[in-house]
Amino acid sequence: MNRLKQLFENKNKPLLSIYYTAGYPEIDSTVNIAEALEKAGADFLEIGFPYSDPVADGPVIQESSQKALHNGMSLKVLFERLKELRKRVSIPVLLMGYVNPVLQFGVENFCKAAADAGVDGVIVPDLPMYEYEELYKDCFLKHNVSNIFLVTPQTSEARIRKIDDLSNAFIYLLSSSATTGKQLDVSQSSETYFGRIKAMNLKNPLMIGFGISDKKSFDKAAEYTSGAIVGSAFVRLLGEPDYMNKISSFVQSIKGN
Amino acid sequence: MNYHVNEKGYYGDFGGAYIPEMLYPNVEELRQKYLDIMNSADFKKEFDQLLKDYVGRPSPLYLANRLSEKYGANIFLKREDLNHTGAHKINNTVGQILLAERLGKKRIIAETGAGQHGVATATVCALKGLECVVYMGEIDIERQAPNVARMKMMGATVVAATSGSKTLKDATNEAMRDWINNPVDTHYIIGSVVGPHPYPDMVARFQSIISEETRRQLKEHTGSESPDYVLACVGGGSNAAGMFYHFLDDQHAKLIAVEAAGHGVNSGESAATTILGKEGVLHGSRSILMQTDDGQVIEPYSISAGLDYPGIGPQHAHLFKTRRAEYVCATDDEAMQAGLLLAKLEGIIPAIESSHALAHLEKMNFKKGETVVICLSGRGDKDLNTYMKYFNL
Questions:
Q1: What is the pLDDT of residue A1?
Q2: I want to staple B375 with a disulfide (CB 3.0 to 4.6 A). Which of A184, B19, B116, B232 is the partner?
Q3: Is the Cα dihedral B318, B324, B329, B334 positive or negative?
Q4: Residue B142: predicted pLDDT
Q5: Residue B15 in domain
Q6: pLDDT digits (tens, 9 = 90+) for B265-288
Q7: In this structure, what are the phi and psi dihedrals at residue A27, rounded to the nearest 5 degrees?
Q8: Partners and quaternary state (chain A) (predicted)?
Q9: Nearest to B173 among A55, A104, A131 (CB)
């Protein structure tokens, strides 16, 4: 069974996943950050492979991607680093990025390299469901790599059901239709939306992402789902001096005890 | 061979809708409704009326006598430069604003490079009293100050795209981000035959008026609606898509698309996508784009801001791969000389984009009596500064 499924089945507290961009702030920081995050209590990791034109991302992740590319990060380099990472980190690891670098790497090569490097799942926001089903699904399943789909407040119920059928790890619930790095709007309407999805009793667990940046938004998300994903707030921290020594307190400030 | 989009949104291997889930409801709504709306009597009536009274269509098909004499062929210019706002871009924005209105949208966003599409969008928003936000690369805002002023005069807000290379590609990214963040009341007027399905098809249909008129006008001029050659320049490819549209199944007509070679195809400063590019996904569709081995998009270069784009529309990728159209390129220097030549021989100063199509005439060998149609996609007013600098005028 893959690490992700195990994690969701055995969980007794809300799960915290942390996103950060590979190769940022330095080309060699990726593995060290992962290790520090596991030690600090993060439950799983989403490592972004950078792309020149990340349309779903706000300024913080855009800038980290550009810096990472400048530092020489690529899928090829990342897969090499991940082998090292797997020797030191045991929590589940997902890769997140855009479809074009995957196409150039080759879908089959990508799935195989991901599996070999101990990657548990993949999030590709601009890979549509239709193309996934027709061209990618068999390859993902063969290598036991889970594909994670996104759901927004505008996604129809029929489409959510279909996404639930195609998913085998968890569903990534966007707090609102937004690019990354916006503050969570803990309004009546978003609570109605979280409640509506929860009431659908989907077979896959849910995680909420986009706009989760602190304990308050994390706790709110966890009322409705298995946990939440923090991205931009953590990437911002990585831009600060002495960031390695701040990782532990950052994770604690969100998860509490 | 079918050169049009299929029901899945593909032209052969190209097209599709590679968009994040946040954009799916908007794009899907458009996909479901665009053909019904465009085919409705009410839409057609208003569209035709505006093209006639507001845009000034039909645009003339002009037999360029002195140019014809020089090259030994009958060369016709399709005068899109005479349209309101000075280019073919307005054909598409008029169509899309009527569509947006019928979808109940209150706010319009657009991307622009040189500012021609931004101006054409601001124009139709003023016409309809809709809010208009135009994304433009920070560098292009500096380079194209008069067009920024035009947009502002017509009430549009011009937002600087400060990410990446700060040009057209990044303005497009910013417009997409805006649409993600405003999923309900906003329509995105894409300016070229790029983007997720149904945009490439929708924009090509709005621009197809160019070839529809051309066939009719050619028949009046020559007795035949079928020329030997049809030429147009290609950045994203909207004027070429419109110019080729009604000739795609006319195998007698050889279609030639001219890309911008910048300082030369192998100079490292070029926008010749079909030569330098590989298959991949950019801005929502699978096509051909200039990219590194790692799949990062490469910044293109051309003296012409309208051709300075790292991809081409998916239909063009299909026409290229099936060889229905020939894709060639012209350098900055070749285009500038062709622009000057047209000014001197015909008293017409073309947009530098269109000059690329004209430049290819130098490389062609005509048989006596052959007929050529060139899409003169825009006028050169916006490029005077560039012409002045280049020729020391």
A1: 53
A2: B232
A3: negative
A4: 86
A5: no
A6: 999 999 999 999 999 999 999 999
A7: -60, -30
A8: Tetramer of two alpha and two beta chains.
A9: A55
Domain count, chain B: 2
Does A106 reside within a domain? yes
B294 touches chain A (CB under 8 A): yes
Q: Are residues B151 and B110 in the same domain?
A: yes
Q: Kindly give the interhelix angle for A29-40 and A247-255, rounded to the nearest 10 degrees.
A: 40
AA identity, residue A203: K
Strand partners, B135: B111, B159
Indicate the DSSP class of residue B142. Answer: H
Q: Is B227 exposed, middle or buried (0-12, 13-18, 19+ CB in 10 A)?
A: buried
How many structural domains is chain A composed of?
Answer: 1
DSSP string, B274-333: HHH-EEEEETTEEEEE-B-TTSPBPPP--SSGGG--SB--HHHHHHHHTTSEEEEEEEHH
Nearest one of A13, A6, A78 to A47, comparing CA atoms: A78
B158-192 residue pLDDT tens: 999 988 778 889 999 999 999 999 988 999 999 99
Which 8-state DSSP code applies to residue B53? Answer: I
Are residues B324 and B191 both part of a single domain?
A: no
| Dist CA A152 CA A212 (whole Å) | 15
Instruction: Identify the CATH number of the domain in which residue B159 sits.
Output: 3.40.50.1100
Largest Cα separation within chain A, whole Å, is 47
Q: What is the mean pLDDT of chain A?
A: 94
B176 touches chain A (CB under 8 A): yes
Q: List, by residue number, the catalytic residues of B.
A: 89, 111, 377
Containing structural domain, residue B237: 56-87+208-391
> Residues A208, A241: contact at Cβ < 8 Å?
no
Are the Cβ atoms of A105 and B279 closer than 8 angstroms? no
B263 and B142 assigned to the same domain = no
**Domain finish residue from B140, B168, B203:** B203
Segments forming the whole domain that contains residue A33: 15-251
Q: Which of residues B178, B203, B228 is at a domain's end? A: B203
Please count the CA atoms within 13 angstroms of the CA of A119 that sit on its side-chain side. 30
Q: Are residues B333 and B375 in the same domain?
A: yes
Do B235 and B309 belong to one domain? yes
More confident residue, A134 or B341: B341
Locate all alpha helices (DSSP H) within B154-292, ordered by sequence: 168-181, 199-207, 209-222, 238-244, 273-276
Q: Give domain status of residue A238, yes or no.
A: yes
Q: Which residue of A has its CA nearest to B287?
A: A100
